[in-house]
Amino acid sequence: MGAYGVGPHEISGGPDWLDAERFVISAKSAQPADGDEELMVLLQDLLADRFKLTLHRETRTMPAFVLDVARNGPKLEKASPGGTNTTTSNTGIMIEAHSANLDSFARILARKMDLPVVNHTGLEGIFDFKLHWTPDTSRPQAGSAPEWPSIFTAIQEQLGLRLRSQKAPVQVLVIDHAERPSEN
After folding, report:
1. Helix or strand (DSSP H, E) at 69
2. How far is Cα 146 from Cα 110, in angstroms, rounded to an integer?
3. When comparing pLDDT for 84 and 140, which is higher?
4. Residue 28, burial from CB neighbour count under 10 angstroms (0-12, 13-18, 19+)
5. Cα dihedral angle (165, 99, 55, 112), rounded to 10 degrees?
6. What's the CA gap between 165 and 63, in Å, rounded?
7. Pick from 82, 80, 126: which is nearest to 103 by CA?
8. 3-state secondary structure 95-162
9. pLDDT over 70 percentage in the chain
10. Is the pLDDT reported for residue 52 higher than 60?
11. Distance between CA 157 and CA 134 in Å, rounded?
């Protein structure tokens, strides 16, 4: 998921053991990676070499969350330098994404959602995002107020955007082949 920047719902195919087994990958590049994009390419190459991973991308129409502009318009901050931080706690999830476009933000958000997130805002530019919410699975018992709102309320109040559920074209990674790696 990290190497290709996708959520778990955007991967299809492959042997059953891919969902059950975990591996520790420790690698050192001959030269330092020049940013996250180059690092992800190196990781993709490592996965192809070590796991004999072959895959392709295809677009499928499937249930998704569509991100669009809310009625009162966007509340987005122009970008400042930085990276992306995602924090999960017992009370909620907080995403801080710096210097990201809305397609990138949708991919970051999709990693924390039950469905893919597709950007339909039509907004161009690079922004900083701060978003915090309490997932439905962590909502407190009736009678006690949640610390943070639901994702649907939070995204509208904090960013001036809206998430709605509908079928949409989503790019999916289809795993054609993978092999268990040999011991080192």
Report:
1. strand 54-69
2. 22
3. 84
4. exposed
5. -40
6. 7
7. 126
8. EEEEEECHHHHHHHHHCCCCCCEEECCCCCCCEEEEEEECCHHHCCCCCCCCCCCCHHHHHHHHHCEE
9. 88
10. yes
11. 14
Domain residues of the chain, as ranges?
Answer: 8-177
Choice between 3 and 166, residue whose per-residue pLDDT is larger? 166
pLDDT score at 77: 87
Mapped onto helix, strand or coil, the DSSP state of residue 170 is strand
Model confidence band, residue 90 (pLDDT cutoffs 50, 70, 90): low
Residue 1 predicted with pLDDT over 80: yes
Spatial separation of the C-alpha atoms in residues 57 and 183, rounded to whole Å: 30
Report the C-alpha gap between 161 and 152 in whole angstroms. Answer: 9
Query: What pLDDT is recorded for position 54?
Result: 96
